[in-house]
Amino acid sequence: KTLYCSVFLIVVAHISALPGWSARSSNNNQNRHRRLPPSSSIINLEISPQSIVEEITKPQPPPKEPTFNCPICMGPLTEEMSTRCGHIFCKACIKAAIATQAKCPTCRKRVTVKELIRVFLPSAS
After folding, report:
1. Is CATH 3.40.50.720 the right assignment for the domain spanning 65-125?
2. How far is CA 123 from CA 16, 68, 71, in A?
């Protein structure tokens, strides 16, 4: 084993003595002190498999019930109505908006009161 190491070191010494050969490329010196971009992720390789299993098996809290607000009055929806383009508003809000401009307040598509559809969303209680 010692003989192989000695031969290897001698070969490396001879090769590095050749003109124009360098153990490090010239680019390597330029890149040596280059900082990583701030958006790069850091991966912690010291996490034990046990902690990963514990994290996966940890009981998750139940998801929160969604809350629905009217994009016109910004309050909770009352008597929810949907336009044919799929946007949902309070009944009073969308009727007033259609009377004013005959367009959906969200996407500006043409809508009429006759086209409104009553929808029933889960209540947030």
Report:
1. no
2. 77, 9, 17
